[in-house]
């Protein structure tokens, strides 16, 4: 992929305390042991430990749609997680699956390995009659070690920007665990009990990550040509600035491609984040403060 110049630090424009469509008033910062998200319309700046960026989601059938998005922070205030998913259904099916995902991610905020999160979620969704097949991408970031891990369940691969090389590339899946069998990285709720690979990376300050749902890639032109991975790559190559700026450029390019003033072909969701300085101080201090001292003080 062609190289691009180093982007600047992300700005912090755009959200209140909950996930919803917002004005440019400040970034949404999650507290310890918190999970936020759903399938509502949003365009906001968000702050996770060591990872700041922009979250955008637009259901195509009104205020609620088939894409869901979740952000979480562990009980120590150190592990940040982003999940974007696409549920094959709307209405009551979407609401039920989304609620189950939220509950499971809430139980899993302290689980460092997102493969275990996906495995447990697959079991829960597969055990419920009538649940819809779901694709998902989950990233987990631990800033004390600058360790990023990503797993996919039948979901489009993301992109990663390396600031030292000034270039974007596709963030492919990791190698399957030896002995995991042939059913790897399948969508959730297929009933086939797949396993999931895990891509591990050490990131630097200024590196970035982009996760999308297939509504981004499949946006059609009037002639039927899809926006595709090539369209995403062009935006990433041609635009610099904050995550908000690049995210807005991606939205502008999508609207120009469909030649309309709204994206109505499918639900469209993406998260674009930049790795920044994490919480100051030793990791052990954050564990003690958030898991021991604050509960003792009733905070």
Describe the model.
The chain is an alpha+beta fold. Mean pLDDT is 86; it is low at 1-25. The chain has a single domain (28-297), classed as Phosphatase 2c, domain 1, CATH 3.60.40.10. 26% of the residues lie in helices and 28% in strands. The radius of gyration is 18 Å and the shape is globular.
> And the CATH topology?
Phosphatase 2c, domain 1
Please summarize the sheet with the most strands: 7 strands, mixed
Annotated CATH homologous superfamily: PPM-type phosphatase domain
The CATH class, by name, is Alpha Beta
The beta-strand count equals 13
Question: What letter string, H or E per element, gives the SSE order?
Answer: EEEEEEHHEEEEEEHHHEH
Structural class: alpha+beta
Short summary:
With 299 residues, the chain is α+β, with helices and mostly antiparallel strands. Helices cover 26% and strands 28% of the residues. It has a single domain (28-297), classed as Phosphatase 2c, domain 1, CATH 3.60.40.10.
What layout of secondary structure does this protein have?
Blueprint: E1 28-29, E2 34-40, E3 42-48, E4 51-58, E5 64-73, E6 80-87, H1 91-107, H2 114-127, E7 134-142, E8 147-153, E9 158-162, E10 167-171, E11 199-202, E12 208-212, H3 214-217, H4 228-238, H5 243-258, E13 268-275, H6 283-297
Parallel strand pairs: 1-3
Antiparallel strand pairs: 2-5, 3-4, 4-13, 5-6, 6-7, 7-8, 8-11, 9-10, 9-12, 12-13
Helix pairs in contact: 1-2, 4-5
């Amino acid at each position: 992929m062609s190289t691009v110049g180093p982007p600047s630090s992300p700005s912090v424009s755009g959200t209140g305390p909950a996930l919803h469509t917002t004005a440019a008033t400040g970034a949404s910062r999650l507290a310890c042991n918190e999970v936020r998200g759903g399938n509502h319309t949003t365009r906001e700046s968000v702050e996770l430990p060591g990872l700041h960026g922009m979250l955008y989601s637009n259901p195509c059938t009104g205020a609620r749609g088939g894409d869901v998005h979740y952000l979480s922070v562990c009980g120590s205030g150190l592990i940040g997680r982003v999940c974007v998913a696409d549920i094959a259904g709307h209405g009551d099916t979407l609401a039920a699956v989304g609620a189950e995902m939220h509950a499971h991610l809430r139980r899993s905020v302290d689980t460092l390995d997102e493969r275990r999160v996906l495995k447990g979620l697959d079991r829960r969704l597969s055990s419920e009659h009538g649940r819809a097949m779901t694709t998902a991408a989950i990233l987990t970031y631990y800033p004390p070690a600058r360790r990023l891990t990503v797993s996919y369940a039948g979901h489009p691969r993301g992109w990663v920007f390396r600031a030292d090389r000034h270039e974007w590339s596709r963030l492919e899946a990791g190698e399957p665990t030896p002995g995991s069998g042939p059913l790897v990285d399948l969508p959730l709720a297929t009933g086939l009990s797949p396993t999931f690979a895990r891509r591990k990376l050490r990131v630097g300050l200024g590196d970035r990550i982009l996760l999308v749902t297939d509504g981004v890639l499949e946006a059609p032109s009037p002639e039927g040509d899809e926006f595709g991975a090539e369209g995403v790559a062009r935006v990433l190559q041609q635009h610099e600035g904050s995550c908000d700026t690049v995210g807005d450029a991606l939205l502008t390019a999508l609207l120009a491609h469909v030649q309309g003033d709204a994206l109505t072909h499918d639900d469209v969701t993406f998260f674009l984040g930049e790795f920044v300085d994490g919480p100051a101080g030793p990791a052990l201090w954050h564990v003690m403060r958030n898991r021991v001292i604050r509960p003792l003080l009733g905070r």
